[in-house]
Design a protein that fits this description.
Helix content: 40-55%
Organism: Smutsornis africanus (Double-banded courser)
Domain FAM65 N-terminal: 1-294
Structural class: alpha+beta
Family: Belongs to the RIPOR family.
Pfam families: PL48 (PF15903)
Order of helices and strands: HHHHHHEEEEEEEEE
Protein name: RIPR3 protein
Shape: flat
Distance between the termini: 38 Å
Oligomer: single chain
């Protein structure tokens, strides 16, 4: 992209074209953009990118991917050690079985390394567009403070165009990055309410992440156990949305709102299942237990 305000933008645009390419970003987004980025359609208002949120998500994602990489590298080292011992002991069948396991782990490690490199590549491209966008903003402000001339007005029009293009590219890269966030497997562990939960009580839990929804109903049994009509749901992580959890008590035809909470998903990018215990009521008399596996 040619930008009239500095030569720096040309250099950065060449780097972007070399490492990722504007056309390649949009081709990878072609399937997802009609739904997730419908606001980028012609005549619509472009979403405002969230660089700080993207940075936090990128750092959490990269840390989680590196945890998986370290865990599988440790497994590979362990299997390789056993492989050598087995070869010396000449247990042929076990030796070939270990060899298959080692090859499988090696393939998975290569996939993880490629995954990490793509995430880093996307984020680098995102940062470039963010800097170009900031540069356009600063130059627009500088021109607005100077006397209005034909040349300055033409420059402002060009800067506005550059700003819009950078904004649009940032939104598309955000969508491309979302493809690499994986899945959250959320399990229902039940409600904890001490004296608040009584046999026969019925509750409805509604979990939302952006457009994704999970509605499940549960009942407190006579032995204080709980039965739920669903136990697990898969959510696709979203850069901009948080988990919203709403609990209502069902009393005949009436429903009573128990509480609503929001939960950020940044801490879920890790290899170990994360237990979530959230206070549904202000006093914490009813808590909801969930488990999230990434």
């Amino acid at each position: 992209r040619s930008c009239s305000f500095t030569g720096f933008s040309t250099v950065q645009s060449r780097k972007l074209a070399k490492s990722l390419g504007r056309s390649s970003v949009r081709s990878r987004m072609s399937l997802k953009s009609p739904k997730a980025y419908h606001s980028l359609q012609k005549g619509a208002v472009i979403w405002d990118p969230k660089p700080l949120q993207v940075k936090k998500t990128f750092e959490a994602l990269k840390k989680g991917l590196n945890e998986y990489l370290e865990a599988h590298q440790a497994e590979l080292d362990y299997l390789s050690g056993r492989h050598k011992d087995t070869k010396r002991n000449s247990r042929l069948a076990f030796y070939y079985d270990l060899d298959k396991q080692i090859r499988s782990v090696e393939r998975y490690i290569r996939k993880l390394e490629f995954h990490i490199s793509k995430v880093e590549e996307l984020y680098e491209a995102y940062c470039i567009q963010c800097r170009l966008r900031d540069g356009a903003t600063n130059m627009k402000h500088a021109f607005s403070l100077s006397p209005s001339t034909k040349a300055s007005r033409e420059s402002l029009v060009e800067l506005y165009k550059n700003f819009q293009e950078c904004t649009e590219d940032m939104c598309f890269i955000e969508g491309a990055l979302e493809v690499h966030l994986g899945e959250f497997h959320v399990k229902m562990k039940g409600l904890v309410g001490f004296a608040r939960l009584c046999p026969g009580d019925q509750y409805e839990v509604f979990v939302r992440l952006g457009r994704q929804k999970w509605r499940l109903k549960g009942k407190i049994e006579t032995d204080d156990s709980q039965t739920w009509d669903e136990e697990e749901k898969i959510f696709i992580p979203n850069l901009h949305e948080k988990f919203e959890i709403k609990v209502t008590e069902l009393r005949g035809l009436a429903t009573i709102l128990v509480g609503v909470v929001t939960c950020d998903s940044i801490n879920f990018f890790t290899t170990k299942p994360q237990a979530i215990i959230v206070d549904i009521t202000e006093l914490g008399t009813i808590k909801l237990q969930l488990e999230v596996l990434w």
